[in-house]
Amino acid sequence: MAMPSPEAARPSPPRDPILVVDHLSMRFGGLIAVNDVSFHAARGEVTAVIGPNGAGKTTVFNCITGFYKPTTGRLALFHGAAPSAARLDAVTAAGLSWGRTGTGALYLLERLADHKVASWARVARTFQNIRLFSGMTVLENLLVAQHMSLTSSGLLSPAALLNLPSWKRQQQAAVDKALYWLHKIGLVARSDDPAGDLPYGDQRRLEIARAMCTSPVLLCLDEPAAGLNPRESAALNELLLSIRHEHQTSILLIEHDMSVVMEISDHVVVLEYGCKIADGTPEEVRNDPRVIASYLGVEEDETAVVAAEVGA
Amino acid sequence: MSTSDVDLPVPGTVVPPAPAPIPPPPSGPAASPSVLGEAVKDAVVSGILTGLLLLPLVGFRATEAGSGPLILTTRFGLVAVLAGLVAVLRLTLHLTLWRPGRTAKVSAAPSPLARLAQKAGPALKPAFFSFALAYPFLSILLAGGLSESRYWVDLGIYILTYVMLGWGLNIVVGLAGLLDLGYVAFYAVGAYTFALLSTSVPVGDFVNGHLGEGFWTAWSFWICLPLSGLLAAFWGVILGFPVLRLRGDYLAIVTLAFGEIIRLVLINWVSLTNGGAGISSIPPISFFGMPFTSSETGFAATFGLDFDSMHRIIFLYFVILGLAALTALVTIRLRKMPVGRAWEALREDEIACRSLGINTTLTKLTAFATGAMFGGFAGAFFAVRVRFVSPESFTFMESAVILAIVVLGGMGSQMGVAAAAILLIGGMEMLRNLSFLKADFLFGPDFDPSLYRMLIFGFAMVAVMVWRPRGLVSSRMPTIFLKERKAVSAALVKEGHG
């Protein structure tokens, strides 16, 4: 496996981070899918993770969202201002999965079950291959996403069972929120249609709206522009930027479509063969010789190294 | 024909000529002039194969002549008739339905049945419920007397028990998409809970000591009914925990084993359950404390009626109707609550559920517990109706029938499940009454139609599943809508993976 590059070893200066990934590694048997990757995502910004196919991007996502338990590494998520390093280390050493901080809380995502990453730490995600509830209507999809807020008074609350006014108000608020997002993605007219009947681009946007209905602090999007035409891509950019500006939701994004990445990201992390090879603003990354090499091919003297890695 | 999802045209309907027939692919063998030749060839081959197959099975028959040796008789004529039937049938099919190049009717408009269902839809549920309410009185009227109607009211009770069980299992299988082959275990838990508590001497003495003599006999069902439901729900959770990681076939097998374990425990724990001999002399149901006896304080005397043992049966009918209605209403309500939506979301996509913060463990357990609770209610009812329980009543066959009702009805659909229960249970019962088949010109007096019950039942199941692969009511009704409630087609609704 490749040695960690100098960029990866250099500690990134945290500018109010919301997510700090420390030395994340993920092994599947003998395969090292992610090798000692460290980066951070800043609050209120769009962080893109890019890289060639098989670079380990989705594995990083699955670790962050709790679907995989990383082999090693720490994934810290902050609600409110980032705590001091000492506080973070104290929570880590105490074996806790979360702790209070001065202005909020910190969560160690690698120690939380997947549904708690979503419900406690409020990290929402979408999937590379769309995972909508295809047999349920568009509106129902958005209501399922509000499960946590609707069940705050218990899974079988008597108010809901007897359809009391307090429950009706709660339900109406959930429908209103769903409607807000339907307006936002332009699907109000199709609210009563099954989600599986929507065209592909609409399904992508609906999945983002569904994730947003969980009121996340961090939204992880796995290739949201895959399969979209240029017009749909532009609409997606607009949607993501509006989420970023209006909803105090930070975005972490995997994307191959460079027009999306370069236009909306504030910060780009580049992975190759499980290692981080670059980390910086879109401009810096675009001019990074290693990134150019990985995307456009490599110089002759490096071919042997790459071939060895691919073969391994 | 492997295109089970394409609407097969019903024989007899006129297929309009396709305006622009799609030319068959050039490599296909279709459109050759020898359609008839091919069909005849196939018919002859299948006829010969059938003949060969049936020769040892049907052609030879060993009969015992008195106490003497076996006598071999041959029935080659019958074999020939059957083989000929198969050949003719295949020939007809090849020339009609299976004819190459024949375009299957793909209509955008819903089938006549679907249109009819749409029109009658809003009135269907009230009509069904009104009929269920009036059923005992109708059967008294039509049978011409209180005691003459006994068979029909009993049949109604029997069917409603299965409607309720189907609705209970529907929560687990239809809504949450968890294939449960051991549902009868919860039915058994409910039945034995009531049977053991109501016949227990210490419990009876304790309750009677505090609340007066005869109290336990009079009230035991009404007190044990909620307990049976709770205990069954508890066992639902017990079953749920170990199987949460399992999906699909594996889940089905473990639930099947669970059903058998409960039955074997009931058989072998003789000191508690009296083993295979069962528990008898369970106290009968009371009209909320008023016994159905001819005594002064009995139901008939209190209401100024002439005593008749049918009063109890009719009351039982209304009890099971009430329990079934409760099951239906609670399910309808739950579907509109977050937990019900989470069940359906779980059936659609478990991973997406987890990404939205839904605790899938808890959601599955609530589905198991809720379904089991209604199974427990039905079990307590079974025990008070029959007044005798034994492990024989809770075999795998029961689970299979209940699951068949849910699958045949259309997973998730309450009307479908009710219709399937009436069709299956009522139909199987009707098959007992085919005494006209014993007429001399048909099968003769030696023929026992009830022996062929399961065969006909099996054929009917196969036929319905070919005709409607996703059950009688295959579409799903959304739980909430903004402008218009549109049914979701079965093609989009997932069946769940366990």
From TrEMBL, chain B:
<protein>
    <submittedName>
        <fullName>High-affinity branched-chain amino acid ABC transporter permease LivM</fullName>
    </submittedName>
</protein>
<dbReference type="Pfam" id="PF11862">
    <property type="entry name" value="DUF3382"/>
</dbReference>
<dbReference type="Pfam" id="PF02653">
    <property type="entry name" value="BPD_transp_2"/>
</dbReference>
<keyword id="KW-1003">Cell membrane</keyword>
<feature type="transmembrane region" description="Helical">
    <location>
        <begin position="250"/>
        <end position="270"/>
    </location>
</feature>
<dbReference type="GO" id="GO:0005886">
    <property type="term" value="C:plasma membrane"/>
</dbReference>
<dbReference type="InterPro" id="IPR001851">
    <property type="entry name" value="ABC_transp_permease"/>
</dbReference>
<feature type="region of interest" description="Disordered">
    <location>
        <begin position="1"/>
        <end position="33"/>
    </location>
</feature>
<dbReference type="InterPro" id="IPR021807">
    <property type="entry name" value="LivHM_N"/>
</dbReference>
<keyword id="KW-0472">Membrane</keyword>
<keyword id="KW-0812">Transmembrane</keyword>
<feature type="transmembrane region" description="Helical">
    <location>
        <begin position="400"/>
        <end position="425"/>
    </location>
</feature>
<feature type="compositionally biased region" description="Pro residues">
    <location>
        <begin position="14"/>
        <end position="28"/>
    </location>
</feature>
<feature type="transmembrane region" description="Helical">
    <location>
        <begin position="314"/>
        <end position="334"/>
    </location>
</feature>
<feature type="transmembrane region" description="Helical">
    <location>
        <begin position="72"/>
        <end position="93"/>
    </location>
</feature>
<feature type="transmembrane region" description="Helical">
    <location>
        <begin position="127"/>
        <end position="146"/>
    </location>
</feature>
<feature type="transmembrane region" description="Helical">
    <location>
        <begin position="158"/>
        <end position="179"/>
    </location>
</feature>
<feature type="transmembrane region" description="Helical">
    <location>
        <begin position="365"/>
        <end position="388"/>
    </location>
</feature>
<feature type="transmembrane region" description="Helical">
    <location>
        <begin position="450"/>
        <end position="467"/>
    </location>
</feature>
<feature type="transmembrane region" description="Helical">
    <location>
        <begin position="219"/>
        <end position="244"/>
    </location>
</feature>
<feature type="domain" description="High-affinity branched-chain amino acid transport system permease LivHM N-terminal">
    <location>
        <begin position="39"/>
        <end position="135"/>
    </location>
</feature>
<dbReference type="GO" id="GO:0015658">
    <property type="term" value="F:branched-chain amino acid transmembrane transporter activity"/>
</dbReference>
<dbReference type="InterPro" id="IPR043428">
    <property type="entry name" value="LivM-like"/>
</dbReference>
<keyword id="KW-1133">Transmembrane helix</keyword>
<feature type="transmembrane region" description="Helical">
    <location>
        <begin position="185"/>
        <end position="207"/>
    </location>
</feature>
